[in-house]
């Protein structure tokens, strides 16, 4: 039975399209690519693709990744400009024995050679926000301040499982900064025998716990997706608190080989969309008390 899950309310329409592909016998890969491209092409979502808010130098740097859970191959790009749909480049790189993760000019050259559409990813609106931010004396890098990575996991009728991620990263980040989204084991991981996971939030914190790999490892040992998300996030939060740090801003999603899904967050509320045996719905994971991460898959609403 096909299943699909994605991060944030912005993924809802794309996930609807992706899940329709699965219901019609299509592949997990096509479902994930279609869903993420829908977000990348929408300028209203200023943390992914076209219209993404710029780095400190006024340019939009893109990160994306793709992993095939049946082969354990991955592909990704990081700190690249002007690729209209970064997720397409990441998918094309998946399966290469070497040179599967490309950065900057190398990623852009690959996209051009593959005939992928290129465009200036900035909009007048995003540039106006950048100019306004430049005037502020004290700027802060907040993980969920105009920054939400779109992550998608899909399982098809053939048992294939795919995970994909795409983001333009932190608003006003330093040029060259890369977070967890294109880093295997941190921003994403997929093993079709056990499940897949993906993360969104402050990449510098997520990478410290290799959260996505840890979640899949817990599912491999028998944990449900919800249990795995909560435990992995809780352990990282506990470590941060023991070091005198705050809990951080992190959210995770997961799906096992049976299509069951789960999520956890340190936020007050983390919306995600999911579908299995029914049409896609929006749900909300809710954070627990200090030092804990909790999940509650209560339906948020049926439409974005």
The CATH superfamily appears as (Glycosyl)asparaginase
Choose one word for the global shape. globular
Q: So what's the CATH class?
A: Alpha Beta
CATH architecture: 4-Layer Sandwich
With strands numbered from the N-terminus, the spatial order across the biggest sheet is: 4-3-2-6-5-1-11-12-13
Q: According to CATH, what is the topology?
A: Glutamine Phosphoribosylpyrophosphate, subunit 1, domain 1
Amount of helix: 25-40%
Strand content: 15-25%
**How many beta-strand segments?**
13
Low-confidence stretches: 289-296
Task: Profile the largest sheet.
Answer: 9 strands, mixed
Individual helix count = 8
Element-level helix/strand string: EHHEEHEHHEEEEHHHEEEEE
Calculate the mean pLDDT score and round it. 92
What does this protein structure show overall?
The protein is of the alpha+beta class. It has a single domain (3-301), classed as Glutamine Phosphoribosylpyrophosphate, subunit 1, domain 1 (4-Layer Sandwich). It is 29% helix and 25% strand. The protein has 8 helices and 13 strands. The protein has a 9-stranded mixed beta sheet with strand order 4-3-2-6-5-1-11-12-13, with helices on one face. A 4-stranded antiparallel beta sheet has the order 7-8-9-10, covered by helices on one side. The chain is globular and about 50 Å long.
